[in-house]
Amino acid sequence: MAFIGIQFLIWSLSGLYMVSMDIHFIHGESLQAQTKQPIALAQVNYSFSNLLSEYPDAIQVELTQLLGKPIYRFVDKNQRKYMLNAQTGAPLPLIDKDRALLIAKHNMRGNNSIASVQLIDDTSTLPSELSTRHLPVWQVVFEHYSSPTFYISQHFGNIVTKRHFFWRMFDWMWRFHIMDYDDGENVANWFLLFIALLSVSAALLGLMLTYQRVFKPSSTGAN
Amino acid sequence: MFKLNKTLHKWLSLFVGLQLLIWLITGLYFNLMDHKKGAGNANLRTVVHRAKVPHTSLIPLQSLAIKPAQSIKLLWILGQPYYQIIEQAGAHRYQTKVVYLLDAQTGTPAPLNETLARTIALKSFKEAVNITEARLLEPPIAALPKEQNPLWQVILNDANNTHIYIEHSSGQVIAHVNDDRRLRDLAFKLHFMDYMNTGGFNHWLIIIFAITTLVLSLTGATWLIERFKAGQLSLIFKHHKKSVTVTELTSQQTHTLALETKSSLFDGLIASGIQLPSSCGGGGTCGLCKVRCKSVVNATSADKARLSDAKLEQGYRLACEHNAGEVTDIEVRAKLIRCDD
Ligand code: FES
Questions:
Q1: Could you give the domains of chain B?
Q2: Which PROSITE patterns match (chain B) (predicted)?
Q3: Which three-class secondary structure state does DSSP give residue A86?
Q4: Per the domain annotation, does A61 fall within a domain?
Q5: How many domains does chain A have?
Q6: Do B58 and A48 touch (CB under 8 A)?
Q7: Fewer CB near the last or first residue (10 Å), C or N of chain B?
Q8: Domain range for A47
Q9: What secondary structure letter does DSSP report for B82?
């Protein structure tokens, strides 16, 4: 039973971290600038109907903007991603390093300088904090003690995920909380089940002691 | 100092005890539950909205009076194309937003109507089922506390009491809330102490409880370490026994018992069938487990705190605070005896 004590400590510590840190802050929402200009509709010479005539299978079609220019983003039925210039309809090339840096700077709330930039395009170099479905992406790390990191889709030029020290910490706390020490994805592990069962009995026993102590003071008393 | 630690531990256990049990039991439930069922998705299936529409039939955006928008999506709802105008939206779908639908062929405003909501609901459900009622709800929505936008609620008359929620600004199925899901949501509510229905876990009540629980764990750990140092807990069980003469005053019986030297006298006596009165379970705080030692045994701080000078002088000590190894001949007044020798 004494070993359960360690897990209780871990649960309370990780639980406290998770409830006291604002979840939107953890998600890095405060890192991203929220100044969104409306799309310049007057410049959109290539219409949705032009797009459909050229790409009849397009789904999830969105007219939006990238660095102030109107663009279309969509995928086809094989989930292949496309990005077009909304003025001309011309397909836009994959985001290169310079564009990635521009996008990163444009979206960063502070004016931190860039610490590193790197293309991640296969699963062998995939950091554990990023999901495979986002590949390929540019990883842009800013200069700051919390190493804020933007992951920018190479096809779409949008920020797919933001990470920083506090998120990474949260992720560890979550793993400790659910006692999944390999990938943090599995709440249903046997180890957790075993410890949780043991803990319920420990807590019940403890509560019985508290109950006896507080609500049933013995007449013999202490002296 | 150490006494304060114990006192704190007891009072904190009173404060967070019940919630601690709730955390553990709901945690256990999350560990064991079927996650797909728990999410309410047992009968959920994807609704196919996309259809072939002649591209020429789409009305150009320029011909419409559209207010400045962040983005515009081309959506299909049950085979019909719509422009979804996003004037303003947050990082999460459920956050307040200004989004509306236009019929992409006529350009007229086309808010998701009841017929569409009902059809989408039926199509999203795996089995054939009837609808009891459909209505458009404004937030706050009890079943989905985070939601800040209007949703259609379509109530089915299935055995699992399913309510289907559909987003008014997109026709997207947000959730199938059925009895399985309600159970899971209740477990979440309890685990997150979300008794104010915020839909999240970043609130002061749980923060206070979390801090208290952390202190409870820390005082508990300190206590354990203290006991370990006192030799009352050992990791490797070495069986060293020692003969102790025990006189039970109520029954006037004397036994010679072989007690574990490394465990407390309190525990050792229990193992031999003699249970001393106690309400702290051997924690050194209730002062009920006193025994009289005929040989000299040094008094600990717990002894001094719980026993009067006169008693100490007479040789009374707390059985839970001393190891069997320290005594040879004692007098006890037991609560229960079950001695076989
Ligand atoms: S059992 Fe309570 S003080 Fe010893």
A1: 1-42+178-229 (no CATH), 50-176 (no CATH), 241-337 (3.10.20.30)
A2: 2FE2S_FER_2 (PS51085)
A3: coil
A4: yes
A5: 1
A6: yes
A7: N
A8: 35-92
A9: E
ipTM of the complex: 0.81
Note which residues in 31-50 of chain A have CB less than 8 A from chain B. 36, 38-39, 41-42, 44, 47-50
Q: Name the DSSP letter for residue A120.
A: E
pLDDT of residue A220: 39
CATH assignment at residue A78 = 3.10.450
Q: Does the residue A168 lie in any domain?
A: no
Model confidence over B44-80: pLDDT tens digits?
Answer: 888 888 877 777 778 888 888 888 888 999 999 988 8
pLDDT, one tens digit per residue, over B243-299 is: 888 888 888 888 888 888 777 889 888 888 888 888 887 888 888 899 998 888 888
Tokens 């495979």 — which residue? A132
- Residue A212 maps to a domain: no
Cβ–Cβ gap B28/A193 under 8 Å:
yes
Which atom of ligand 1 is nearest to B277's Cα?
1
Question: H/E element holding B180?
Answer: helix B179-191
Q: Are A107 and A150 in contact (CB under 8 A)?
A: yes
Neighbours of B61 (CB within 10 A): 21
Q: What's B57's DSSP letter?
A: G
**Quick check: is A127 in a domain?**
no
Residues 6+ apart with CB under 8 A from A57: A76, A77
Task: Flag whether residue A9 sits within 8 Å of chain B, measured between CB atoms.
Answer: yes
Q: Which residue ranges have their beta carbon within 6 Å of ligand 1?
A: B 266, 278, 280, 282-289, 318, 320
User: Which are the contacts of B255, defined by CB distance < 8 A and separation ≥ 6?
Assistant: B245, B246, B248, B272, B339, B341
Q: How far is B130 from chain A (nearest CA, A)?
A: 31
The predicted model scores a pTM of: 0.76
